[in-house]
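Researcher: I'd like a candidate sequence for this fold, 369 residues long. If you have to choose between options at a position, lean toward the conservative one.
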């Protein structure tokens, strides 16, 4: 029985007609860049997230980049950055000439450790860039108290956490700016690259709109040096078809996570993820920790049974070759390095069947180590 990390068959059957109608509508409109489709999708995102300004952009990476640009992050600035996350989080900081200061992970949630971050604040620290990893929210109260104490901005990278909540409010909307991705594997995944930036600050909302189009709100008149960060009209139209269904897909992910938790509890060599108090986990990934050095063997064992599992992430950012010259904060990174050796993400997508989940569970229990 094959079990993959992603399947879209049921989604295509459910929404295929809507996708074709949206495609034809954009095709016949002749408006492929920005326009009504983009504006309609942005308003829908604002309503879903409960935020004043949502601006569609070209990718999740560009969402982080434009957010930092709007904050005037640049040379001489430091940004507190989780060592255990996807490359783009730190890459955007470096592209602007600023310095990512590596912050260790929390062993329980995999998110950025505020305890470690507190050791690394300097007079040059301008912002903190937390990532609610794999769909697990961080403690927003503690995060915002930390940022207020040190008088730094919060730029949330919620690329993996569409719909994740803390005390009923969506992550990505607490900080100064939030940035997310609609890469196809996300809970709200597009049909290629696209992303979104959000803010409740009116001035920053206008600046983000300008930066998205080369720093211009009026054609050929430029207030900033921005870039071409526009979302395509077709991406927006297709994503708008999916948005009303995302909560149902999240419910299915949560049900699958509950199944794994119930049936894999008790294995001494396996540490399961959990939903922390006052949070609503959306399970973009179900990432376990395989203890005692058995992670790679389990991954190979599952592959033999045609069960796809993946390692997110085999290296922490401070270990990447391109960042070797940047040792800011690297001396205290330990939990992230342990996670690099232990984490394994299991299939959790909404289209998993009961038989597939049972097969994954039985296979893990059958693993001899």
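Model: Candidate sequence:
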């Amino acid at each position: 029985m094959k079990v993959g990390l992603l399947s879209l068959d049921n989604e295509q059957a459910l929404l295929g007609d809507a996708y074709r109608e949206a495609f034809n509508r954009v095709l016949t409109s002749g408006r492929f860049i920005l326009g009504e489709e983009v504006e309609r999708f942005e308003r829908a995102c604002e309503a879903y997230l409960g935020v004043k300004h949502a601006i569609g952009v070209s990718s999740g990476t560009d969402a982080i980049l434009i957010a930092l640009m709007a904050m005037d992050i640049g040379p001489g600035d430091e940004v507190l950055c989780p060592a255990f996350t996807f490359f783009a989080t730190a890459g955007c900081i470096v592209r602007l000439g600023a310095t990512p200061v590596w912050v260790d992970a929390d062993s329980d949630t995999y998110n950025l450790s505020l305890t470690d971050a507190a050791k690394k604040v300097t007079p040059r620290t301008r912002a903190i860039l937390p990532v609610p990893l794999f769909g697990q929210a961080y403690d927003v109260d503690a995060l915002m108290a930390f940022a207020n104490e040190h008088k730094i901005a919060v730029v949330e990278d919620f690329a993996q956490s569409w719909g994740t909540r803390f005390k009923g409010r969506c992550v990505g909307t607490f900080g100064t700016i939030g940035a997310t991705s609609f890469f196809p594997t996300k809970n709200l995944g597009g049909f290629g690259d696209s992303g979104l930036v959000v803010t409740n600050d009116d001035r920053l909302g206008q600046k983000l709109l300008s930066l998205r189009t080369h720093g211009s709100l009026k054609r050929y008149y430029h207030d900033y040096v921005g870039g071409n960060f526009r979302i395509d009209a077709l991406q927006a139209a297709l994503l708008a078809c999916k948005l009303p269904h995302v909560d149902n897909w999240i419910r299915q992910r949560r049900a699958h996570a509950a199944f794994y938790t119930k049936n894999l509890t008790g294995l001494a060599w396996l540490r399961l993820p959990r939903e922390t108090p006052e949070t609503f986990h959306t399970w973009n990934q179900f990432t376990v920790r395989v203890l005692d050095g058995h992670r790679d063997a389990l991954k190979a064992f599952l592959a033999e049974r045609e069960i796809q599992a993946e390692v997110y992430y085999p290296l922490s950012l401070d270990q990447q070759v391109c960042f070797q010259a940047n040792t800011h904060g690297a001396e205290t990174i330990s939990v992230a390095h342990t996670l690099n050796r232990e984490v394994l993400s299991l299939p959790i997508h909404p289209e998993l069947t009961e038989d597939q989940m049972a097969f994954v569970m039985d296979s893990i229990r059958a693993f001899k180590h």
